[in-house]
Amino acid sequence: MSCGPETIDVAVPTHESGSVLDETLERLARAERASSVAVSRLIVVDDESDDDTRAIGRAAADANGWEPVVMSRPSTLPQAREIAIERVETEWFLFLDDDVRLSETYLADATEAVAPAVGAVQGRKTTSASRNTDWVRRRARRGGTHATLLRREAIEGMLYPDDLLVLEDEYTRRYVEDNGFLWIFNHQARFDHASQERHPIGWQEGYLGGKYGLSQFHTVALNVPFSLAEGRSPIPHAKRALGWVAGRAHRRAASIGENGGSNP
Questions:
Q1: Between vectors from CA 20 to CA 32 and to CA 78, what angle results, nearest 5°?
Q2: Per-residue pLDDT band at 197 (split at 50, 70, 90)
Q3: Of 68, 69, 67, 66, which is closest to residue 80 (Cα–Cα)?
Q4: At a CB cut-off of 8 Å and minimum separation 6, what does 232 contact?
Q5: Residue from 180, 161, 162, 181 nearest 171 by CA
Q6: In whole angstroms, what is the distance from residue 236 CA to residue 238 CA?
Q7: Contact 14, 51 (CB under 8 A)
Q8: For the chain, which has fewer Cβ within 10 Å, the N-terminal or C-terminal residue?
């Protein structure tokens, strides 16, 4: 029997999303109506958009009976997530990217996977064509927060490093697991992603992955020949691999310093 929540807050970090947010929230409303889960509050943390992002959030909340919590703050994506977490009041909440379209059964499928030991349930993009088992194995290399149900207790006290501008999703996953909870990769819960391509592959992602141990070198390095084999430019992947080496060197140097100059 599912231990899923009856009510959830939904947290949407966003920036200049007027062209995509309305559909995202409409699909959220459909998923709510098709499930036994009620959305209590819509928490929108907006990085000072100049378009109608905040107005769209308030209008959707009013139309669907959600309490609107709409803020405009200068913030990176990790900072916006921290701000949103501070305002969550329900035991479980949904991180929802502003360009994600939930399937009608998403909330029902995600909450069905909730159990006492579970701290997060991550869904799968509908565009993924691989076998379910292959997707779970590949996806487990990096957690995602596109449309992820999170237990508030599992991320209590979590603060992102100040320079972590990408890979905060994997940082969140590891925090949940280190806190003793399970992170579930649920291939039954599906969503579409109208990606805004805001986080291109490159040196920064590699550097942060190496510095904070959020990715493995063989994973980022193998993407260089894979991209060539698929007829794509290998340059972004090569930059990411070089960034990883630099980040790893920084991590090692910091570790040696903390150990008084001795090898870690």
A1: 85
A2: low
A3: 69
A4: none
A5: 161
A6: 5
A7: no
A8: N
C-alpha 31/C-alpha 38 separation (Å) is 10
> Which pair of tokens denotes residue 200?
């291109």
Cα–Cα distance for residue pair 175/158, rounded to 1 Å: 7
Two structure tokens written together for 255: 């570790």
- Alpha-carbon span 170 to 214, nearest angstrom: 6
Percent of all residues in the chain with a pLDDT value above 70, rounded to a whole number = 96
Measure the N-to-C terminal CA separation of the chain; round to a whole number of Å. 47
Contact 92, 11 (CB under 8 A): no
Answer whether 34's CB lies under 8 Å from 64's CB. no
245/263 Cα distance (integer angstroms): 18
Bin 38: left if φ > 0, else alpha if -120 < ψ < 50, else beta: beta
Half-sphere exposure of 73 (CA within 13 A, CB side): 17
In 3D space, the residue among 233, 250, 82 whose CA is nearest the CA of residue 158 turns out to be: 82
Q: 């459909």: which residue's tokens?
A: 30
50's tokens: 């100049």
State the residue for tokens 């869904």.
123
CA 187 to each of CA 127, 165, 236: distance values in angstroms, whole numbers, following the listed order: 12, 27, 29
Mean pLDDT over residues 153-176, rounded?
96
**Does 145 or 257 have the greater pLDDT score?**
145
- Phi/psi zone of residue 70: left (φ > 0), alpha (ψ -120 to 50 degrees), beta? beta
Radius of gyration over every alpha carbon of the chain, rounded to an integer in angstroms: 19
Residues 6+ apart with CB under 8 A from 260: none
**Dist. CA 128–CA 179, nearest whole Å:** 30
